[in-house]
């Protein structure tokens, strides 16, 4: 019998799988919370890659929980309807009409699209919002807005913008135990029954903390946190984050992202990673290979 050595491309595939082995062993049974940002939803190919990654995680025994955004999609809908919209420190000022439209786009449209993509990739997902089964109890947010011209801080009323004050994880546990991937829209309800629009990063962070997640990924449309020269910073501690926010390196939509990462690692999540969702299979590369991508926020670094 002649012995044929497999060609190098085939061997490389086997090596990739064996490289993944220690990670597969380490992460089996753990919970990963994945925040899928509106900007990362890009084109159908990236959507398919994302769904495949999530299904693969579930298949290898990890419990993924997806929390999604949809800021740009809410923006287009508001524009179509002729409703003005404004952001303060990365948060959308939300009046009653905007809250209704945001909920419609997030929980009614994007949420079900993602459920569909996961289904197409061979997984089973159920889409819910923070309102379902009392998942997220929200409270109205008040924000200090530093006014660069006046050098003062003023309080801004953001309207129906909420922050999670309590997470009841039972619905997520129930779904995960039934081999169903939960997909969560960032909408919550107040004790008074009021619907709140919640920044998706903040929502995902609260869920990651409540789940005691091992990993928390935030998929966005930049390589990670960039310094003033535009270079990627691959490791940040909570103290670094504070400094970069104070010196104006981190602004806009990156503010809730890094704040959420810090809160998550301080409440027991092992590590939070801001990842470039424009890279195909960004999550799998981060989880199962030696090359970390994006910016990792942790108390101790990579
Ligand atoms: N230091 C920084 N590094 C990277 N991005 C930054 C930084 N400061 C501000 N940003 C902005 O934050 C944006 C990401 O936040 P956001 O638009 O809310 O994304 P998503 O929709 O994925 O949540 C980037 O596209 C960039 O414009
Ligand atoms: C209060 C607030 O800002 N809510 C966000 C919710 C969606 C979101 O956060 O989406 P991304 O993750 O895609 O940015 C909004 O209205 O845009």
UniProtKB/TrEMBL annotation:
Pathway: Amino-acid biosynthesis; L-arginine biosynthesis; N(2)-acetyl-L-ornithine from L-glutamate: step 2/4. Residues 30-275 form the Aspartate/glutamate/uridylate kinase domain. The record marks 35, 257 as: Transition state stabilizer. It is an enzyme of class 2 (transferase). It catalyses: N-acetyl-L-glutamate + ATP = N-acetyl-L-glutamyl 5-phosphate + ADP. Keywords: Amino-acid biosynthesis, Arginine biosynthesis, ATP-binding, Cytoplasm, Kinase, Nucleotide-binding, Transferase. It comes from the Bacteria. Catalyzes the ATP-dependent phosphorylation of N-acetyl-L-glutamate. This is Acetylglutamate kinase. It comes from Sphingomonas abaci.
